[in-house]
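User: Sequence in, structure out. Go.
Assistant: Echoing your sequence, followed by the structure tokens.
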Amino acid sequence: MITINLLGGAKKAVGKSLVILEKPTASISDILKLLQSQAKDSRIFNSNNLLIAINGVESSVLSGNDTLVQTGDKVTIVPVVHGGT
């Protein structure tokens, strides 16, 4: 079981703050595809606009979207807000 915590716009897009993935392993890419399929607006799960942490470690310092997570891991996804004129 992999626990996925959704914050901010990710939580709003999926309609819940917690998703449990009943798989022994998954890549970040697999998780993003799953979340895109559940989201009202799948664009929120563009990996270029997300901060993704696995057990508190940012995925970009691991293997990015190829990072494998496994049973017991906690993934936290936070959309990075962009704005301007």
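User: And one key feature?
Assistant: The two ends are 42 Å apart (CA to CA).
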